[in-house]
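Revision sheet: structure tokens.
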Amino acid sequence: MLISLLQTITKPMFGSFEREEFKKFLRMGLALTFILGSYWVLRTLKNTLFCELSGIDNQPIAKTISIFSLVIFLAGYTKLLDKYARDRVFYMLSTVYVVGCIIFGFLILAPYIGQEARSLVCARTGLAYWATQFIAYAWFVFVESYGSLIVALFWAIASDTTLPESAKKGFSLVVAIGQVGGIVLPITVNTLPGKLGFSTIALSVFLCAATIYASMYFLRSFIKNTPSNLMVSYHGKNEAQEESEQEPGFFEGFRLLFQHKYLLGIFAAVAFPDLLVAIFDFHFQAMASAVYQGPELASYMGLYGSVVNLVALSCLLLGIGNITRILGVPVALMLIPVIFAGAILGFVTLDSLNFLFVLMVGSKAINYALNGPAIKQLYIPTTHDTRFKAQAWIETFGSRGSKEGGAMFNLLIKPLQRSLGEVAGRARHIAWSSYLGFGIVAVWLFIAFGLGKTYKNAINEKKVVC
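Predicted:
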């Protein structure tokens, strides 16, 4: 009865499903709810804790360290995929992050973190300061790796168990359900320490361990309870030939990425929005950390995370997924750079914390609600190794690498401010950001067109691209 009611309610937004097919995507969405919820809690806590322990000025350095560290994580991830089943790898990695959250929670409770952190950052001397810095950078890498590996692995499993026609409508539904976790958990978990009068965010980190464990439970439910006929991978008539050219190994995903233009195109479609958002985000974080500190900053960033996911969910409920379902993946892919062109125009003309809040929320929400489901469908007409190994490299270095590029670009603001003054230097940096941004949009449109055409041809001809 309830399933039938939900099918009727969601039909105008996501299309028609068979009953078991609908239940499959509900289970998948529940798993994503806790994955995204955990990610958004960790993501906002990452910035809060790092700003407290090391300062916003060191964030570009942390991003640089994290991007190189992720090579090691990816090598281990690829080795696990060669040795174990896809769902077992998910459980193993998630367990590592559960334990990691517990460890970091206790480290945050150490005497030299919390209330004394800001004075230590200013002093920059002594063993306590260096221990604090180690925790700050280790925490940053830990959170970045969770966002890269777990989210990518979930979507690899999703694309490996869904056919194109089903994914066209189902993936938007999965994202919509997943946004609920991104709405509820950050605003709940991040604000709890402040409401209870705690001076650190340790409680929020401990709660993250529980939410990550919940994602394991719901993914197991999806794998165990979905009928086998709905867990079928897409297979192209040239798939055996493509797979014969692939080999197991640490860097197989990396090799595949640079061997195929299609994968490089997906890399660009992932990287470009994140690079632009990284530039927006630096100015947003700087303004926010100047206004709020400690638990107040955590609460503000938790509110930000929840609003991003609320707007993304609203877009999906208002039928933005119909763009992909009715007009097709190529149209969805080309619409995103056009929207970002408008965001860049707003960034260079309006300058306030409230506007940057709106800009960040809008940019991320549209990226999640429209660009995300469209890109995930691009992996369907590919081989098993491409879905799992190449996708992990693309999601990691497409997303994290672009953020590193944005961080490097953001380093220019300091020399500009030293030579031109604080206000004029920031204005010059924003102007340079617009030149870079509009150039990226022009290239992005061309790549999106090529990706959409290649995907459509592969599905029509029942082939795999690579």
